[in-house]
């Protein structure tokens, strides 16, 4: 397995470095946010020395791997051939030429969302999630439904009155979502949901509301622990009946 992996990696490295050299020669004046250094001028074109040196070296190592590793020598070419066959089939099915350049001008099927569900968190992180949903809704004309799930401990009745401070915070959160949508010309329908489990409630509401996208947020603190997402986000990712978009916030933001 290691030999086959080396086979593919070395080909990829060699091809990438040759591509950089080729692009420098074909479009020397192309605006580049980053340019590999140092460079050497060849026939009036600046070529990166790392690519000029690296391409033949990685190719030489690839040849050495082919000679010394039977797995790479026999299985590697078959793997490469299988990839080429798949490429040709996909191009033929799509009625495109093998060398035709394809540009993504439209969203792929299934990427247009009509109903977006946003389980709100109290505070700034909730506003960012709503803002993300609004941006998506404006692109595709989707509807937004924002809900605040209030987890009710089992020692209390599920439909009992909420503590005044909790009820106030929920109302404020939902009102902020509505106002944010109004500022951008997008209607945000809001609702408060009581449940024993936040994750179960989000999944159930997505199914009941026929949502085709759920927008959830991931606090940075979870990435410093053994799991990347919170238990709630992890549950939604595993059980959601539709697509899930996780807004992962960078370190230093929304440490809650």
Terminus-to-terminus distance: 43 Å
Rg (C-alpha, Å): 26 Å
Count every helix, treating DSSP H or I runs of 4 or more residues as helices. Answer: 7
Per the principal axes of the C-alpha atoms, what is the gross shape? elongated
Largest sheet: 5 strands, parallel
Look at the structure and give the CATH class of the largest domain. Alpha Beta
State mean pLDDT (0 to 100 scale).
Answer: 81
Tally of DSSP β-strands? 7
How much of the polypeptide forms β-strand, as a percent range? 15-25%
Tally the structural domains. 2
N-to-C SSE string, H for helix and E for strand: HEEHHEHEHEHEHE
CATH second-level architecture of the largest domain: 3-Layer(aba) Sandwich
Strand arrangement across the biggest beta sheet: 5-4-3-6-7
- What is the percent of helical residues? 40-55%
Descriptive account of the structure:
- The chain has 256 residues and is α/β, with parallel strands linked by helices.
- The chain contains 7 helices and 7 strands.
- The longest helix is centred in the first third of the chain and has 25 residues, at 2-26.
């Amino acid at each position: 397995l290691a030999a086959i992996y080396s086979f593919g990696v070395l080909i990829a490295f060699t091809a990438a470095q040759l591509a950089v050299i080729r692009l420098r020669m074909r479009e020397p004046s192309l605006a580049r946010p980053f340019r590999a250094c140092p460079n050497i001028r060849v026939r009036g074109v600046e070529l990166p020395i790392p690519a000029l040196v690296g391409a033949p070296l990685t190719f030489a190592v690839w040849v050495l791997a082919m000679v010394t590793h039977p797995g790479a020598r026999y299985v590697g070419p078959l793997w490469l051939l299988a990839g080429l066959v798949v490429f040709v089939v996909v191009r033929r099915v799509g009625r495109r030429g093998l060398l035709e350049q394809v540009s993504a001008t439209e969203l792929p099927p299934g990427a247009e969302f009509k109903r977006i569900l946003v389980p709100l968190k109290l505070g700034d992180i909730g506003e960012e999630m709503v803002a993300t949903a609004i941006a998506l809704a404006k692109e595709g004309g989707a509807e937004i439904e924002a809900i605040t799930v209030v987890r009710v401990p089992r020692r209390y009745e599920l439909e009992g009155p909420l503590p005044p401070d909790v009820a106030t915070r929920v109302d404020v959160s939902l009102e902020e979502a509505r106002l944010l949508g109004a500022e951008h010309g997008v209607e945000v329908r809001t609702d408060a949901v009581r449940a024993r489990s936040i994750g179960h409630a989000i999944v159930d509401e997505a199914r009941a509301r026929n949502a085709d996208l759920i927008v959830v947020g991931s606090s940075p603190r979870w990435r410093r622990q053994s799991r990347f997402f919170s238990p709630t986000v992890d549950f939604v990712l595993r059980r959601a009946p539709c697509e899930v978009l996780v807004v992962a916030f960078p370190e230093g933001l929304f440490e809650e």
